[in-house]
Design goal:
The chain has one domain. Helices cover 77% and strands 0% of the residues. The protein has 5 helices and no strands. It is elongated.
Length: 153
């Protein structure tokens, strides 16, 4: 003997009924948190779409004050969302590919709207109203896509 004792009790395996109950509880918990995360992601994307519409209209129709205010809203929104998300402790699986796709499409459309619109279309609602709506489309579209679980059923 090596002089070391092993007095720790041996773990007792759960009964089949206990194991099944634990697995069922884990599955319900996973489904619940996944649903919460998906609803949070959907709300984030819809809020981002609304923020985008406001910012594009401010930048395009508001002159220099609109550009300044619009330029401040985006970072404030992003910072607020980042802090809030970190405090929630929820990470939706849909944040992976869908979220990245929405953000990339949004960035291309937002950049194009500003590049084509400023200064040539400054103050022209015929350009900025459609531009604001088109820029928000990726966020709304991805927010309204059904979850993987909803598509499977």
């Amino acid at each position: 003997m090596d002089g070391m004792s092993n007095d720790a009790p041996l773990p007792v395996a759960p009964s089949p009924r206990e194991a099944a109950a634990a697995l069922e509880l884990a599955a319900r918990s996973t489904a619940k948190t996944s649903g919460i995360g998906h609803r949070w992601t959907r709300s984030l994307l819809l809020a981002w779409a609304a923020m985008t519409i406001v910012v594009v209209l401010l930048v395009g129709l508001g002159g220099i004050p609109g550009i300044v205010i619009g330029s401040l809203i985006g970072p404030l929104f992003a910072g607020t969302v980042a802090v809030w998300a970190a405090r929630q402790g929820i990470r939706a699986r849909s944040l992976n590919g869908r979220y990245l796709l929405a953000v990339c499409l949004w960035a291309v459309l937002y950049g194009a709207a500003l590049l084509l619109g400023l200064p040539a279309q400054a103050g022209d609602p015929a350009y900025w109203l459609p531009a604001a709506l088109v820029t928000a489309v990726p966020m709304v579209a991805v927010a309204l896509l059904p979850r993987h679980e909803e598509r499977a059923s």
